[in-house]
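Extended Data, panel c. Modelled sequence:
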Amino acid sequence: TALAAGGGQIGSGLLLVVGFLTPLAATGVIGVMTVALTVKWRHGLWVQNDGYEYPLVLVATAAALAATGPGAWSLDAVLGLASYPLWWAALALAAGLGSGLLTRLVLHRTA
């Protein structure tokens, strides 16, 4: 599972950096950070207490990127894919949150 999570983080991050398939990349980031958020949930919000503040910020940032699009200097723009409809952002958010929560539910072990 660590390899899958690491691959998801690296792959989604690289796709976001080059601006390729932005809604799909945002979905990956949202999914991985949702798992991180659930792990840190019991510590509260604030990061100084090992809370979920930072994963929440990354989820919001990925959702915002899915909503606003990749920008003019992206592979999506070069390939003519840059104008994703707004419903893609809602789909990316729902799929990312759903996949992260499902992953956490399936793989969670009690100590």
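The CA atoms of residues 14 and 28 lie 11 Å apart. This feature is highlighted in the accompanying rendering.
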